[in-house]
Amino acid sequence: MENVIELQHVYKAFKGFELKDLSISVKKGFVTGFIGGNGAGKSTTIKLIMNLLKPDSGTISIFGMDYKKNEKEIKQRIGFVFDSNIFYENITLAEMKKIIKPAYRKWDDTLFNQYVDMFELPLKKNLKTFSKGMKMKASLTIALSHHAELIIMDEPTSGLDPIIRSELLNILHNLMQNGERTILFSTHITTDLDRIADYITFIHNGQHIFTKEYYKIEEEFAIVKGGTNLLDRDTEQEFIGIHKTNHGFRALTANKQRTKNIFGDTVIIEKPTLEDIMLYTKKGEERDAKSYS
Amino acid sequence: MLNLIRKDMILQKKTLPFMLLFLFIYLFVNVSTSWVAIVFCIVIIMNAFQTDETSSANLLLNSLPYTRKEIVSSKYIGALIFIFLTLLTIFIGNWMIHREIMQWEVLLFITSIVMGLISFAFPFSYLFNSKYLLIGFGGVFVVYMVTLSFIPNLNDRVREVVQTVLSLDNSLFYIGIILSVGLLYVLSWILSIRIYSRKVF
């Protein structure tokens, strides 16, 4: 299967934060949900993919091309939505379009107007008067009006109400129908991904934890509940992270079948949510840090 | 790249009519034309520069299909266009109001001064931020006022020097000025591209 985005052994260090040996790929024709906590490195990774940052080492290729030689060609084919408004505030959407349109070879006015109508966006009002939802819709309109093959969204749903979020997800779902488009969607509101993501890429503390097909996550991972008497030094190793209370424990396993074999009927096994996976990965890490010290 | 210059024009559209109004008022009051022209050129050029200095504007421009080289170059070429347009306006204004035609030496003098100042202002602003430039200008102004208290006729002397320079009838001298200002501008351009390429947003 063709990869649209490919990062290989990418390192990028800042003061107090680094991406370590990041190798991820995003498959053509699918929605990849990009998850991780605040400060996990999602935005940094997206900036690397957009060539807003350059890696200290490692290679990044988009559509099989690299930014050194084909920067403009790559960006022609990308549509982007950031979590904050990046448009000039003192002009109208119509003026903003006038500024952006000539940058793209494949700009489509009909498409633009279609989205403007659909989102009921005012063309003649200053962008600074737009609400957060409207700004996101304006961003999306611009991102979708030049037939981008790859759409990159950095936390587009943060700060939006459920109605607008749901609207956005519907639109993204419809966009995927022709199979030519690829979407990379970063978020920490993981429930957004239930509806549209085909793949999930999870990073934590600047490291790639996994990239999996969404349905496989439910097959492999599981939340296990049981009495604390079941836990000892060996059985604890079965879990990524454990949460203990007086009544028992709740833990995440990455190998549902093995856990079933070990514990049998003594535990309850449930489907995990993406949030569980994020949470218990962090917990497990804290535990490991403790046991090492 | 022309698109980026056009973008600066669109963004300046709202302030330009006001600028034009002020320009004509100044021309009426009969302040030194060179002085007015230099101030207006700098204000317009730096205003255009500032709108793109925010992190969101940088995020936008760098996400669009432009290279960093083009983004910087658009500012340098745009500055030349702004200088040309301002001088043209002043030239026409002067002719309409005072019925006098500006000497080409004066135009050259203004252009050289503005290009010289921009050659320092742009790389400095790319490296730090243009708001420090304003503070710097404030500092220079204070120094100027202090100097003025020591040499009371400083203004006259400056005027004299400018007059002497302008009355020099030596084409070799002018060519020298054009070449050195041009060279300074190009070096500043290259330096700015280097600084901007390494920026992190």
UniProtKB/TrEMBL annotation, chain A:
InterPro entries: AAA+_ATPase, ABC_transporter-like_ATP-bd, ABC_Transporter_VariousFunc, P-loop_NTPase. Residues 5-230 form the ABC transporter domain. It comes from the Bacteria. SUPFAM superfamilies: P-loop containing nucleoside triphosphate hydrolases. Keywords: ATP-binding, Nucleotide-binding, Transport. Pfam families: ABC_tran. GO terms for molecular function: ATP binding; ATP hydrolysis activity. PROSITE patterns: ABC_TRANSPORTER_2 (PS50893). PANTHER family: ABC TRANSPORTER ATP-BINDING COMPONENT (PTHR42939:SF3), ABC TRANSPORTER ATP-BINDING PROTEIN ALBC-RELATED (PTHR42939). This is ABC-2 type transport system ATP-binding protein. It comes from Ureibacillus thermosphaericus.
UniProtKB/TrEMBL annotation, chain B:
The chain crosses the membrane at residues 20-49, 76-97, 106-126, 132-151, 172-196. Coiled coil: none annotated. It comes from the Bacteria. The keyword Transmembrane helix applies. The keyword Nucleotidyltransferase does not apply. Keywords: Membrane, Transmembrane, Transmembrane helix. This is ABC-type transport system involved in multi-copper enzyme maturation permease subunit. It comes from Ureibacillus thermosphaericus. The lineage of its organism: Bacteria, Bacillati, Bacillota, Bacilli, Bacillales.
